[in-house]
């Protein structure tokens, strides 16, 4: 039995398990192709590439004869520019029905209402006997607005639907033939146009390329396989098709070359090669049966007998193409569904930004109210750290992070606190035994000497051993000198981050013209006022530390002084004890040592500071360092809370609120919200695309409403996976003798359906 025979006559009730299996496979294939064709008929291919087989090749390569052999319909014999558009050929097995021909609109084009009506009303229903495809093509050209002067090509698609008992379940897209040199009827510019069209179809990753090569011409002069290998270098989605093998001289090098080509030796494609024998000029009027019989005789003799029967002839090409297309759809349909859903979401988001039509003053004011409400909500969410809105995107990206204002603030202020703690003091005072590592470091003894000189030159009426309290303020002001630069640096970073979020949020909820108008009238001036208030508040926070007298009632001040002095006394006592005892016993715990108590007392007493000015300088240094720690904590919190939060961040939602929209007059509303032609056109395009995608998604959802030829209704997932109607426990291997009923046969077949 030939490969294609079982596809014609076997049914579920036949005795052949293979035939029943194939019948069910054909039901499955038909419904899969119907789903994709329905998507294409809704115009979804204008936005999303769909799985399809495209027929492409050079002019006079035999493309028309291939389509004629597959469908049984006579196509125009010369593949020239009379077809300046793609033709979609839909073949389905079923009862004989009239051939339906219509136009599927391509990408949006500028057309008059008359041209649009001609396009939408182009519907032809004719029997196969009365079909004059050449005349229909000319009528289609007229409906598409194609002429020889202003428009030589259209992105519209001519759709031809055929049904009959001998037809395969198959959909092909026929493309105009490539040609290299222009002539009187077709120019060099036309050649470039056709090439651009064909390559655009070939580049689609969801296209199966049926590359037609004529054995009558030198292989190297046919560009289609070169384009195929450039676009599909691994050949995973290319099937080569050799036509006119009967024109080769028997035993010639050319014949041997094309035999090896058909064996996938010369140019390798994962899908391999196929060979067809076309009608020649003498048999151009022969019937399909006569053509098929002549072809079968040709491949059963001579060197062509060496090729596998599944790779030659029309009888095996039909099921081969059907299987390739079905497998391709199964592999691509999940991604198509995802892409449709993504497209619907993107269109919806963009339409939310564009809003409704804004032709009247009422519509314009309503649009501004929507913008203000959405803007305020987004800014509040950014401030509160609630990032659930799609506006905030992916936090792992720089763009997504910059929109998360609370996260940016937390990180900026944490970094500010760290920087000012480590770099905020002018001098790093270390003990004498410490190592000087930084240029800012100074030993305590040197710093005390510096303070002592300052005390001496600032002496008032204070008693020896005491100091003027104002000296602490003078020392502190010098120590906190870097604060202003550090605070201002982080303040400007926060101002830029806040403005970025404000502008980005407003851009997200309004179109460009409204964005520019709102920035100019409301946002920029108000934001500058907030930024000025912030800078003034920062100056106010820093002013007491720059010029005022140190003031604090925080007990932390005296605790720090006492701790610092206690640590120094402890070091001095340990040092004195070591001198008396002859060693450091602090790590020994309890020890028994003979000691002269008077000597110990005298040693400890003699450590009293004799230089009262030195004592006063040391004490002043202790108070300055303690006050610096208290003031540092305060300036960190005041900058974060009283300045950044209170003066800037919490006021951002007021930059443009709904009350502003109610207070402005109609002229201002029109200036801010009137819609330009570009926005109006974009809304129309988005609405059109959204409808097409939603209709396409509904087609896929409706898959759940009908069966794929199995006992249970199919789900979308079953269509995608090819598992419709499969049983769970029926995967065990059974022999045909174990099958006792028709239902058992069905279950066994279903388990084998891929």
From TrEMBL:
Q: Name one Pfam family in it.
A: Dynamin_N
Extract one GO BP annotation from the record.
Answer: intracellular distribution of mitochondria
Which residues does the UniProt record annotate as the domain Dynamin-type G? 47-334
Alphabetically sorted, this entry's keywords are:
GTP-binding, Nucleotide-binding
Q: Domain named GED: which ranges?
A: 617-708
- Transmembrane spans: none
| Gene Ontology cellular-component terms listed | membrane; microtubule; mitochondrion
- Name one molecular function that GO assigns to this entry: GTP binding
This protein's source sits in the domain of life called: Eukaryota
UniProt keyword annotation of Ubl conjugation present: no
Keyword match Signal = no
Name this polypeptide is given: Interferon-induced GTP-binding protein Mx
Organism of this sequence: Lentithecium fluviatile CBS 122367
The organism's taxonomy opens as: Eukaryota, Fungi, Dikarya, Ascomycota, Pezizomycotina
């Amino acid at each position: 039995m030939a490969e294609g025979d079982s596809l014609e006559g076997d049914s579920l009730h036949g005795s052949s398990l293979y035939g029943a299996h194939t019948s069910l496979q054909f039901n499955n294939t038909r419904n899969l192709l119907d789903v994709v064709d329905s998507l294409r008929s809704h115009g979804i291919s204008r936005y999303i590439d769909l799985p399809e087989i495209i027929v492409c090749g050079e002019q006079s390569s035999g493309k028309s004869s291939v389509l004629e052999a597959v469908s049984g319909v006579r196509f125009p014999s010369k593949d020239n520019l009379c077809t300046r558009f793609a033709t979609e050929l839909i073949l389905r097995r079923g009862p004989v029905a009239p051939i339906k021909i219509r136009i599927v609109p391509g990408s949006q084009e500028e057309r008059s209402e008359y041209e649009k009506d001609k396009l939408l009303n182009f519907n032809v229903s004719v029997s196969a006997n009365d079909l004059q495809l050449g005349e229909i093509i000319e009528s289609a050209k007229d409906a598409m607005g194609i002429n020889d002067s202003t428009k030589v090509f259209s992105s519209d698609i001519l759709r031809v639907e055929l049904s009959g008992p001998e037809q395969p379940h198959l959909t092909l897209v026929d493309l105009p033939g490539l040609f290299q040199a222009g002539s009187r009827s077709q120019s060099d510019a036309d050649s470039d146009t056709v090439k651009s069209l064909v390559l655009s179809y070939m580049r689609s990753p969801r296209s199966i390329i049926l590359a037609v090569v004529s054995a009558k011409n030198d292989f190297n002069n046919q560009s289609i396989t070169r384009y195929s290998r450039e676009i599909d270098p691994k050949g995973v989605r290319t099937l080569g098709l050799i036509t006119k093998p009967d024109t080769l001289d028997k035993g010639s090098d050319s014949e041997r070359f094309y035999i090896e080509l058909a064996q996938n030796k010369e140019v390798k494609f994962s899908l391999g090669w196929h060979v067809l024998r076309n009608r020649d000029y003498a048999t151009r009027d022969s019937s399909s049966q006569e053509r098929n019989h002549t072809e079968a005789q040709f491949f059963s003799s001579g060197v062509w007998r060496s090729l596998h029967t599944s790779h030659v002839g029309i009888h095996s090409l039909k099921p081969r193409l059907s299987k390739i297309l079905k497998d391709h759809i199964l592999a691509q349909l999940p991604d198509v569904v995802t892409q449709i859903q993504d497209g619907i979401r993107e269109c919806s988001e963009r339409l939310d930004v564009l809003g409704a039509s804004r032709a009247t003053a009422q519509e314009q004011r309503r649009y501004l109210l929507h913008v203000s409400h959405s803007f305020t909500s987004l800014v509040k969410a950014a401030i509160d750290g609630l990032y659930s809105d799609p506006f905030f995107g992916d936090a792992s990206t720089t763009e997504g992070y910059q929109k998360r204002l609370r996260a940016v603030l937390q990180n900026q202020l944490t970094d500010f606190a760290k920087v000012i703690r480590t770099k905020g003091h002018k001098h790093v005072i270390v003990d004498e035994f410490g190592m000087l590592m930084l240029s800012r470091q100074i030993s305590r003894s040197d710093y005390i000497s510096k303070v002592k000189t300052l005390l001496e030159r600032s002496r008032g009426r204070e008693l020896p051993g005491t100091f003027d309290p104002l000296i602490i303020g003078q020392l502190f002001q010098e120590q906190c000198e870097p604060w202003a630069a550090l605070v201002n640096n982080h303040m400007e970073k926060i101002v830029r981050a806040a403005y970025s979020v404000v502008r980005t949020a407003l851009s997200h909820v309004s179109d460009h013209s409204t964005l520019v108008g709102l920035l100019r009238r409301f946002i920029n001036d108000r934001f500058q006022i907030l930024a000025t208030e912030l800078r003034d508040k920062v100056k106010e926070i820093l002013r007491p530390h720059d010029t005022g007298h140190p003031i604090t009632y925080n007990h932390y001040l005296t605790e720090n002084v006492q701790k610092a002095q206690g640590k120094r006394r402890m070091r001095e006592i340990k040092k004195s004890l070591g001198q008396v005892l002859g060693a450091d016993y602090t790590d020994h715990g309890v020890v028994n040592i003979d000691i002269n108590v008077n000597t110990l007392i005298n040693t400890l007493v003699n450590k009293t500071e004799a230089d009262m000015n030195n004592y006063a300088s040391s004490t002043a240094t202790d108070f300055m360092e303690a006050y610096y720690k208290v003031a540092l904590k305060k300036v960190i919190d005041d900058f974060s809370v009283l300045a950044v939060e209170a003066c800037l961040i919490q006021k951002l939602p007021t930059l443009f609120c709904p009350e502003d929209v109610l207070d402005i007059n109609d002229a201002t509303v029109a200036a801010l919200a009137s819609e330009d032609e570009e926005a109006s056109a974009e809304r129309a395009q988005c609405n059109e695309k959204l409808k097409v995608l939603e209709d396409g998604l509904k087609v896929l959802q409706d898959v759940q409403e009908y069966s794929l030829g199995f006992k249970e209704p199919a789900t979308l997932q079953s269509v995608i996976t090819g598992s419709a109607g499969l049983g769970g426990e029926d995967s065990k291997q059974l022999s045909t003798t174990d099958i006792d009923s028709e239902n058992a046969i069905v279950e066994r077949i279903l388990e084998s359906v891929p």
